[in-house]
Amino acid sequence: MERLQKVIAQSGYASRRKAEELIKQGKVSVNGETITELGTKVSGDDDIVVNGIHLGKEDYVYYLLNKPRGVVSTAKDEHDRKTVIDFINTDKRIYPIGRLDYDTTGLIILTNDGNLTNILSHPSNHVPKTYVAKLSHSLTPSDLMRLKSGVVVDGKKCTPTRVKLKKNDLDKDYALVELTIIEGRNHIVKNLFKELGYLVDKLSRIEYAFLTLDNLKSGEYRELSIKEVKKLYEYKIKNK
To answer: What is the per-residue pLDDT for 51?
Structure first.
């Protein structure tokens, strides 16, 4: 037995918070009975209807997309900008796990599996994400050491698990830095460098957990294998 709002979220219909709002508004029924109490528990055999839509036992799908620049990481955009969903050919109601900024490119996962979304999004599971940042200026040795030892951002220290200076061009005055972090605060990579006095001109996520872009071009995607999905689920097991 699971809480009703959790089951709705795992179906991919809405977030858990939105599901709670729908329940309170009387827009959810179980086996023909309208439910308004958040503590209600349901089983896999119950018939759940949200806003007139039956939540069937939908097959889960998992995609890895190389997100282009100038695309928003949401299912819908109020300004009618292109979203990551627009690149995926599926009739499933999918959504991205986490976000990449509008001007950030690279690896993003899309799915309708709410359980996996929760696992990969929860900070306690320490899912690593690797980025390459092009900086507005060449990086000094002292700032490189500060980056490796950790930088305080908004009162909380963020220490990358790995930092690699890929290029430091003193003549053209720019640097390429590869770094891996295990937290997911908004704009954390840009803010790390901002604290050190650098602007990030370009940012790309090249790895998520053990997944890489391989040979995917910008805007291309592929489905994750069953083996890859099972390995992603192991992040919860590793950090229990």
So the answer is: 85
Could you give the C-alpha distances from 136 to 103, 139, 140, 198, in angstroms and in order? 15, 9, 12, 6
Looking at residue 40, its pLDDT comes to 93
The pTM score is 0.76
Domain boundaries, the chain: 2-54, 62-124+211-238, 128-208
C-alpha–C-alpha distance, residues 134 and 112, integer Å: 33
What is the length of the chain? 240
CB contact set of 75 (below 8 Å; sequence gap of 6+) = 83, 85, 93, 94, 95, 96
Catalytic residue among 101, 113, 143, 173, which?
101
| CATH fold of the domain at 128-208 | Alpha-Beta Plaits (3.30.70)
* φ and ψ of 211, to 5 deg: -80, 145
Topology match between the domains 2-54 and 62-124+211-238: no
Domain 2-54 matching CATH 3.40.1190.10: the answer reads no
Q: Is 154 a catalytic residue?
A: no
> d(Cα 92, Cα 226) in Å, to the nearest integer?
18
Fold for domain 62-124+211-238? Alpha-Beta Plaits (3.30.70)
Q: What angle do CA 62, 66, 67 make, to 5 degrees?
A: 105
Q: Which residues of the chain have pLDDT under 50?
A: none
